[in-house]
Design goal:
Blueprint lengths: L5 H12 L5 H8 L3 H14 L18 E9 L7 H9 L4 E6 L6 E7 L2 H12 L5 E8 L11
Antiparallel strand pairs: 1-3, 1-4, 2-3
Helix pairs in contact: 1-2, 2-3
Length: 151
């Protein structure tokens, strides 16, 4: 674990908002020179605090107007391995995220679909036919606000 000071936190918050900022731009936002900001960024990357950059797609602009969080409880009678289930669900292109969770459900999926009818087809034809799929609960995303995190 790395010790973060206030300037490190400022740098990280700025990067969470816009990961394309250069070291010079980050330095100007945080009151540092470009070389000082670059050194701090390098230290944060080397420590593992920064692990890559992420591209955020506009799903609606790409034709995917519905996002659903789907809880799946595995059917205990099927004796399917977690690895087999994860492999099968990860092969479905509309599944954006697979999380193995603790609680009522075993997995939480983030799924995109063109509309609710498209999601229903996906649920019936692809998700419910997965090895080990049991009880499901769907939650349709109404809105989303990206927050900078706990820094």
């Amino acid at each position: 674990m790395i010790d973060l000071d206030d300037i490190d936190r400022q740098l990280l918050r700025a990067l969470v908002r816009d990961a394309t900022l250069s070291a010079g731009a980050l330095g100007r936002r945080c009151g540092l020179s470009q070389p000082a900001a670059w050194r701090r960024l390098r230290r944060l990357r080397d420590s593992g605090a920064i692990n890559g950059r992420q591209l955020v797609l506009d799903r609606a602009a790409l034709g995917f107007g519905v996002t659903v969080f789907l809880g799946i409880k595995l059917d205990r009678k099927s004796h399917v391995s977690l690895e087999d289930f994860e492999r099968a669900v990860s092969a479905i292109p509309e599944v954006q995220l697979v999380e193995h969770v603790l609680g009522r459900f075993d997995y939480r999926l983030r799924i995109v679909a063109r509309d609710l009818a498209d999601f229903e087809r996906l649920l019936r034809r692809r998700i419910m036919t997965l090895p080990g799929a049991g009880e499901v609960e769907a939650n349709v995303l109404l809105s989303e606000e990206r927050l900078p995190g706990p820094l």
